[in-house]
Amino acid sequence: MCTGVALYDTSDSSPLAAFHIGKSFFATIGMPITGASYYEYLSDGDHDLFEVPIEELEERIINGKVTSYWIYSDLRSGLPWDAAFTYQTGEYGNFPHIGAHCDGNIEEVYGAITDWLNKVVEQFHVPYGIVYTAEKITAALHYAAGENCTSMFPFENGFAFQKEAPGMYGGLGRYTTSMLRMVYPYNVLNGEHLQIKVVHQTLLDWINDDKERGVLRLLGKDRWIWEVKDEQITAVNMALGEIGILVAWQPERSKKRIRKLP
Questions:
Q1: What is the superkingdom listed in this entry's lineage (predicted)?
Q2: Is this model's pTM higher than 0.90 or not?
Q3: What φ, ψ does residue 258 adopt, rounded to 5°?
């Protein structure tokens, strides 16, 4: 199992500021940085990734030659990496977001990662973020970017988020204001999220009305943390999904019995 963090609409964070965020992520989880790679356009208009030492990546970022990149820890000398951090802009067919992922159950790294995330949210303009678990780090990487139809829940449409995100499909990105992607164990919200209508209430009042809907706390100016326990996740997602405020919600399909021919 592995743990993933995704932060969205991060275009206000510069590539260099994000670089330092990335380095602090590896220090937080206690894994060394073993390499890095950056995106660059080719002569035919396509793009590719180029591997460099972390020192060279920093130099290229400072000189304005790199805007989108990966930093990783590869202790086992192979893919997938043991931990990875990425900063993406609207270039190279992607959309602005930050992803941070590492091997390990969420219970093992939850305190360290959420402490790191709290500091990031307090220092930088991050309108929306999530912490989630995945079976493999490759799934966590794809999920942050909305790629490969990857989903975390049986009641989730794996393609819906990619269509909603800016970038390849030119989506509206409503998950940063008037909707949520889904509900996760740890959610970074802003004031607009808390004014989303849940029937006759705001999301703020709906959460605070019932302790089974998680705990909400203020973190810095106009930033809130919503923590939801594992045993509450399904019920909360179903309640909000059924009224249409979750981007990737879809009713779980019941398994049909196949009649045998006589």
A1: Bacteria
A2: yes
A3: -95, 120
